[in-house]
């Protein structure tokens, strides 16, 4: 059997209205690329990226959900296994920002209580079309005690940084073991979207 090439496995989830740029954010992070064609996600998809944080190899399994309401049942079934959730809105669309409250309620209903959350105001490259101020994004994040970034998948602004910070927040509350041994390895089945909480 192949030797495990990572120390920890973190499961992350991207949620938010259709068209806010969840798939593009993930594509920028995983492949450093961007596509202007909008191909709405059907159901759920995922990508893997391994990062290094504080000397630990962390495999990120990132689930990209469809924002369309008709996929709600399938997408919410993935909340439970997530250790970190990114809530995305589009700074040019007030409706997607208003819906952040709805997405937060979905998390309360379906995710683990200790899930790490982060709010992203995406498409910050479109300053001329901005309809949601950065201050409003910061305010809702502060209100809920959540981290916040404005991002651009197109211009690669704050994409890597937001994933790294979310991973770091999860790592910080992962009970540490003696890193000189190999016991930090985690075994989580990847055939389902549900994680047995690691370590
Ligand atoms: N200008 C700009 N456009 C973006 C950015 N991110 C995404 N887009 C565009 O927004 C559209 C929607 O992006 P997607 O990533 O497919 O949106 P989504 O949130 O995954 O949508 P669903 O899969 O339907 O939930 C596409 O046309 C992208 O090119 C960005 O940072 N800046
Ligand atoms: Mg998508």
UniProtKB/TrEMBL annotation:
Keyword match Nucleotide-binding: yes
Could you tell me which SMART domains the record lists for this protein? Answer: ARF, RAB, RAN, RAS, RHO
What InterPro entries does this protein's entry cite?
Answer: P-loop_NTPase (IPR027417), Small_GTP-bd (IPR005225), Small_GTPase (IPR001806), Small_GTPase_Rab (IPR050305)
Q: Which SUPFAM superfamilies does the entry link to?
A: P-loop containing nucleoside triphosphate hydrolases
List UniProt keywords, sorted A-Z. GTP-binding, Lipoprotein, Nucleotide-binding, Prenylation
Mitochondrion recorded as keyword: no
Q: Which family does it belong to?
A: Belongs to the small GTPase superfamily. Rab family.
Q: Which PANTHER family match?
A: LD44762P
Protein known as: Ras-related protein Rab-10-like
Q: What is the lineage of its organism?
A: Eukaryota, Metazoa, Ecdysozoa, Scalidophora, Priapulida
């Amino acid at each position: 059997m192949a030797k495990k090439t990572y120390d920890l496995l973190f499961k992350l989830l991207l949620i938010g209205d259709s068209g806010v740029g969840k798939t593009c954010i993930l594509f920028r992070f995983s492949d450093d690329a961007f596509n202007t064609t909008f191909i709405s996600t059907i159901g759920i998809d995922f990508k893997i990226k391994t990062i290094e944080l504080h000397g630990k190899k962390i495999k990120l399994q990132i689930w990209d959900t469809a924002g369309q309401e008709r996929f709600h049942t399938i997408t919410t079934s993935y909340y439970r296994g997530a250790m970190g959730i990114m809530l995305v809105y589009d700074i040019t669309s007030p409706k997607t920002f208003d819906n952040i409250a709805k997405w937060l309620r979905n998390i309360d209903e379906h995710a683990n209580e200790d899930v790490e959350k982060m709010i992203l105001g995406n498409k910050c490259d479109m300053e001329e079309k901005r309809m949601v101020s950065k201050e409003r994004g910061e305010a809702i994040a502060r209100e809920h005690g959540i981290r916040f970034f404005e991002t651009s998948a197109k211009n690669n602004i704050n994409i890597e940084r937001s994933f790294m910070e979310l991973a770091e927040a999860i790592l910080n509350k992962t009970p540490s073991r003696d890193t000189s041994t190999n016991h930090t390895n985690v075994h989580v089945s990847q055939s389902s979207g549900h994680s047995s909480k690691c370590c």
